[in-house]
Specification:
With 554 residues, this protein is mainly α. It has 23 helices and no strands.
Length: 554
C-alpha cells in the first residue's frame, strides 16, 4: 500500500493551488479609475450574494481545528462532540433573526465599532485590543500549528516549513485582495472541503467494512463502539468534564456558540458585507444547513479510526504502514491525517486539498478580521484619525502581514497539545462569557450602562478563572474538596455568563435608578420580521436536529 503522495496527488494539489491563487488575485484587482477604499477592502464593497456569504461562513469556520481537532475528539469522545456543530445550526438562526438586523441597521464595519455606538470608545478599545490578541495568539497560531501537524503526518514535511508554506499560501491572495478575494475563493474552497472530506469518510467506513461500502461500515462502527454514539454523556464517562451531559444542551454550549457566531468579527464580517439584510439571512440559512453535514465529514472518520486502531484484524489489513503515526488516546489528533495516508492515489490529493482549503480559508479570514479591527478601531481612532483610503488599506495589509508573522513564530510552541479542539474551546471560554453578557444586555436591555459594561468586562475573567482553577486548586486534598468539586468548563462558561450579567444589571440599576440609558437601542418589532422562506427553512433545520438528538440520545 502506498501511503505517500504520487504524481496524480501532486497534480491535483497544484491545480487547486493555482485555481485559488488565480481567482483570489483576479478578485483582488482594482477597477480602472477607482481607488480601493475601506469598504472595498474590509467589507467587499457590501456586494456579497447569499451563496457567497453562506459558503464563506463555513469556509471561515471549518479549519484545522475541525478536521484535525474535532476528528481527534471523535476518536477520544465520539459523536457527542458534534453538538458544537449541530447546535451551531440553531445559533445561526438566532443570529440571523435577532442580532444581524441590528448590526446591519447600524451600518457597522466591526464588532468593536458596535460597542462604541452602544457604550463608549473606552470599552471599544478594551475589546478591540483583546480581539486582536485573541486572533493572533490563539486562532491564527492554532490553525497554523494544526495545519502543519497534518502536513507533517501525511507528507513528512518539517513542521516549520509547513507553517511557512501555509502562511505564504494564505498571504498570497488574502493580504492584497481583502475580504472580496477571500469570500469568492471561499465558495470554491467549500466545494473541495465537502467533497474531499466525504472522500475520507467513505474510505474510513469502507476500510472498516473490508470493501463492503460506506453504509455497511457505518453499521459496523455503531456496533463495535456504541458508547461513541452517545450524544449525552453521563457522569461516569471520562469525557464528562468536557461535555457535561444535558448541560451541553441547556448550559455553556450556548455561550460558546452565541459568542462565536454572533459577536466574532471574522465570522459576522461576511454577513455585514451582504447586499442586503435578506441576502445575509439567506446566506446564514445556507451555512446552518451545511453545519448539519459537518459531523459526517470530520467526526465519523475519527470514530472509524478508533474502531480500526482497536481491532487487530482491521489494523492488520493496513499492513506495516498502519502502525506509522498511529493515533492513540494520548495522541487523538493524529486520527484524520493517519486516515488520509490510506486513500488511493488521486483521492488522497483531493482529501489533502480539502484539509488545505479549510486551513487556508480560515487563516485568510482571521488575518482580514485582525487587520479590520486594528485599522478601523485602533489605528484610525488613535494613530491617524484623518488617514485617507489609500493609507487605510495599506495599514490593513501591513497589519495582516505582521499578524501572520507573529502567528508563524508562536505556532511551534503549541506542540504536544492533545485534543486541540477542546483546548481552543476551553481557553476561549475564559473570555467569551463576559463579552456575551455585555452584548446581550447591551442589545436587548436599554438600562445597561457603559460603566456597568466595563465592570462586566473586567470582572468576568477573574470569575471564569475562579471556576477554572480556583475550586480545584484550592480545595483538592482538603476538607473543602466536596464543596468545590471540579466544574465542567462548559458549565463554568454558563455560570460566568450569568454572574457577569447579574453584576452588570445591578451596577446599571444602581447607576440609573431604573431609567433607560441614553445610548440604549430602541427596538421595533419590524426589525426582527423575517421572510416565509427564512421561517420555513429554520423550522426544517430544527426538525432535523430534533430527530438527530432523539436517535442518538442514550
Amino acid at each position: 500500500m502506498n501511503t505517500g503522495f504520487v504524481t496524480l496527488d501532486y497534480v491535483i494539489f497544484i491545480a487547486y493551488a493555482l485555481l485559488i491563487l488565480g481567482v483570489g488575485l483576479y478578485m483582488s484587482r482594482s477597477k480602472k479609475g477607482h481607488q480601493k477604499n475601506a469598504e472595498d477592502y474590509f467589507l467587499a464593497s457590501k456586494s456579497l450574494p447569499w451563496w457567497a456569504i453562506g459558503t464563506s461562513l463555513i469556509a471561515a469556520n471549518i479549519s484545522a481545528e475541525q478536521f484535525i481537532g474535532m476528528s481527534g475528539s471523535g476518536f477520544a469522545v465520539g459523536l457527542a462532540i458534534s453538538s458544537y456543530e449541530w447546535m451551531a445550526a440553531i445559533t445561526l438562526i438566532i443570529v440571523g433573526k435577532y442580532f444581524l438586523p441590528i448590526f446591519i441597521e447600524k451600518g457597522i464595519y466591526t464588532i468593536p465599532e458596535f460597542v462604541e455606538k452602544r457604550f463608549s470608545t473606552n470599552l471599544k478599545t478594551i475589546l478591540a485590543v483583546f480581539w486582536v490578541a485573541l486572533y493572533v495568539f490563539v486562532n491564527i497560531t492554532s490553525v497554523l500549528y494544526l495545519g502543519a501537524l497534518a502536513m507533517n503526518t501525511i507528507m513528512g514535511v518539517d513542521m516549520m516549513w509547513a507553517i511557512i508554506g501555509l502562511s505564504l499560501f494564505a498571504a498570497a491572495y488574502s493580504i492584497y485582495g481583502g475580504l472580496a478575494s477571500i469570500a469568492w475563493t471561499d465558495a470554491i474552497q467549500v466545494v473541495f472541503l465537502i467533497f474531499g472530506g466525504l472522500a475520507t469518510t467513505y474510505l474510513a467506513l469502507n476500510t472498516v467494512s473490508d470493501g463492503q461500502g460506506m453504509m455497511e461500515g457505518l453499521g459496523i462502527i455503531y456496533d463495535k463502539a456504541p458508547t461513541k454514539f452517545s450524544m449525552i454523556l453521563d457522569e461516569s464517562n471520562p469525557e464528562y468534564l468536557n461535555l457535561p451531559g444535558i448541560g451541553v444542551l441547556i448550559g455553556g454550549m450556548w455561550v460558546a456558540n452565541l459568542y462565536y457566531w454572533g459577536f466574532n468579527q471574522y465570522i459576522i464580517q461576511r454577513a455585514l458585507a451582504a447586499k442586503s439584510l435578506k441576502e445575509a439571512q439567506k446566506g446564514i440559512l445556507l451555512a446552518a444547513f451545511l453545519k448539519l453535514l459537518i459531523p459526517f465529514i470530520v467526526v465519523i472518520p475519527g470514530i472509524a479510526a478508533f474502531v480500526i486502531v482497536n481491532d487487530p484484524e482491521m489494523l492488520a489489513r493496513l499492513g506495516a504502514d498502519g502502525l506509522i503515526n498511529i493515533p492513540s488516546d494520548a495522541a487523538a489528533d493524529k486520527a484524520y491525517p493517519w486516515l488520509i495516508q490510506f486513500l488511493p492515489s488521486g483521492l488522497k490529493g483531493l482529501a489533502f486539498v480539502a484539509l488545505t482549503a479549510a486551513i487556508v480559508s480560515s487563516l485568510a479570514s482571521m488575518l482580514n478580521s485582525t487587520s479590520t479591527i486594528f485599522t478601523m478601531d485602533i489605528y484610525k481612532q488613535y494613530i491617524n484619525k484623518n488617514s485617507d483610503d489609500k493609507t487605510t488599506v495599506r495599514v490593513g495589509r501591513i497589519t495582516s502581514a505582521v499578524a501572520l508573522l507573529i502567528g508563524a513564530i508562536v505556532a511551534p510552541l503549541l506542540g504536544g497539545i492533545n485534543q486541540a479542539f477542546q483546548f481552543i474551546q476551553e481557553y476561549t471560554g475564559v473570555v467569551s462569557p463576559g463579552i456575551l453578557a455585555i452584548f446581550l444586555l447591551g442589545l436587548f436591555w436599554k438600562k445597561t450602562t457603559n460603566k456597568a459594561a466595563i465592570w462586566g468586562a473586567l470582572v468576568s475573567i477573574p470569575i471564569a478563572m475562579f471556576f477554572k482553577v480556583g475550586p480545584k486548586g484550592w480545595a483538592e486534598g482538603s476538607a473543602l474538596e466536596n464543596i468545590f468539586p471540579s466544574v465542567p468548563f462548559l458549565d463554568q462558561m454558563g455560570y460566568t455568563t450569568l454572574l457577569t450579567m447579574a453584576i452588570i444589571a445591578l451596577i446599571s440599576w444602581n447607576q440609573n435608578k431604573g431609567v433607560d440609558d441614553a445610548k440604549g437601542f430602541e427596538l421595533r418589532r419590524e426589525t426582527f420580521k423575517t421572510s416565509s422562506t427564512f421561517n420555513i427553512s429554520a423550522f426544517a433545520i430544527m426538525i432535523v436536529l430534533v430527530f438527530l438528538y432523539a436517535f442518538f440520545w442514550k
